[in-house]
Structure formats: C-alpha cells, structure tokens
Amino acid sequence: MLDHTDQRILEELSKNSRITMKELGEKVHLTGQAAASRVAKLEDQGVIEGYTIKVNQEKLGYSIHAFITVITQSMNHQPYLTFVKTQQEIIHNYKISGDGCYLLECKFPSNERLDQFLTELNKHANYKLSIVINK
C-alpha cells in the first residue's frame, strides 16, 4: 500500500518524468536523496514500470485520430492480431468486452491512408469507426 508521499511522488512524476530528484523532493517535502530512494523503491516494487514521452501526432503529420471498434468474424483472432502487428498507425490495441472484441486507437496522415487501412482491416474483421473531433 502506498502512503501519501508515494502517491504525491507518482503524481509529480506523471506530470514531468524528467524532474530532478532535488526538485521532486522539494515538491513532496523530502530531500533529493530521500525522493530518489522512494522512486527506486517504487521501481523495484514494479509500481513504476517505465518512463515515456508524449508525442504530438498532429505535428508529425497525423491529423486524423480514430477509434475503431473491431468485431472479429471468427473465433480465431490470429489473422487479425497478425495484421495489427504490421500496422504503424495503431497507437493501442485493446481487447475489450461489450460491443466488439477489440478497440483500436489509431492515427492517420490522410483520409486515403485511413481508407486503405479499413479496406485491409475488413479482410480480417468488421468494424465501427469513430473519428476524434476535439480533445
């Protein structure tokens, strides 16, 4: 169970994982060394699994953000899963319950590329497309 200080550390690291241990310590009322020890402990316990960056997809030329509910056509999902592994536009592939079998979060540079993707996807599964209008 995490105490209040550990929760604050996670909150601060979630905002900025590049923060120095000294700055982190100041924010959670610890020394830099004590903050570093707490972070190391959280990493050892598997609470912190890694650090990442947030990329602005629009600035990379991917202006279309889509969620695609996927309904597989058979109980054998392997052809679909193999297809998914080869597609660079997929941000996340979630296995879900409810209306579909999977939920894809994707980014596309153009409607033409989206159409190509959906044509290929339709060889493996049916789908329902939702386009993000605004965040």
UniProtKB/TrEMBL annotation:
<dbReference type="GO" id="GO:0043200">
    <property type="term" value="P:response to amino acid"/>
</dbReference>
<dbReference type="InterPro" id="IPR011008">
    <property type="entry name" value="Dimeric_a/b-barrel"/>
</dbReference>
<protein>
    <submittedName>
        <fullName>AsnC family transcriptional regulator</fullName>
    </submittedName>
</protein>
<dbReference type="Pfam" id="PF01037">
    <property type="entry name" value="AsnC_trans_reg"/>
</dbReference>
<dbReference type="InterPro" id="IPR019887">
    <property type="entry name" value="Tscrpt_reg_AsnC/Lrp_C"/>
</dbReference>
<dbReference type="GO" id="GO:0005829">
    <property type="term" value="C:cytosol"/>
</dbReference>
<dbReference type="InterPro" id="IPR000485">
    <property type="entry name" value="AsnC-type_HTH_dom"/>
</dbReference>
<dbReference type="InterPro" id="IPR036390">
    <property type="entry name" value="WH_DNA-bd_sf"/>
</dbReference>
<keyword id="KW-0805">Transcription regulation</keyword>
<keyword id="KW-0238">DNA-binding</keyword>
<dbReference type="GO" id="GO:0043565">
    <property type="term" value="F:sequence-specific DNA binding"/>
</dbReference>
<dbReference type="Pfam" id="PF13412">
    <property type="entry name" value="HTH_24"/>
</dbReference>
<feature type="domain" description="HTH asnC-type">
    <location>
        <begin position="2"/>
        <end position="63"/>
    </location>
</feature>
<dbReference type="InterPro" id="IPR036388">
    <property type="entry name" value="WH-like_DNA-bd_sf"/>
</dbReference>
<dbReference type="InterPro" id="IPR019888">
    <property type="entry name" value="Tscrpt_reg_AsnC-like"/>
</dbReference>
<keyword id="KW-0804">Transcription</keyword>
